[in-house]
Amino acid sequence: MLADLKKPHLVPLYDIYSHIVYAMNASDVETVLVNGKVVLNERKLTTADEAEILQKAEEWGQKIWSVNSH
Fold it and tell me: For position 6, what pLDDT does the model report?
């Protein structure tokens, strides 16, 4: 994981592990590697189509809503 640590809520940095758990936000993460492969680069997915995932989630949400609203 690569993150921008030069943000007001992350300064001063005393303990990196404490910062990761208690101070960092998901928006601070810029790049993620899994088994040496970049899966998130500059906050964008590289292994999946985010627009397609969001569209399918919306479709499923509508299906669930229509079943539960009857």
Answer: 87
Q: Which CATH class is domain 2-68?
A: mainly beta
**Of 49, 39, 15, 44, nearest in space to 27 by CA:** 44
Residue with tokens 């479709």: 59
> Rounded to the nearest 5 degrees, what angle is found at the Cα of 35, between the Cα atoms of 10 and 55?
75
In this prediction the pTM is 0.62
Nearest CA among 12, 37, 45, 8 for reference residue 25: 8
- Provide, for the chain, the percentages of residues in helix, strand and coil under a 3-state DSSP scheme, each rounded to the nearest 5: 45, 20, 30
Domain ranges of the chain: 2-68
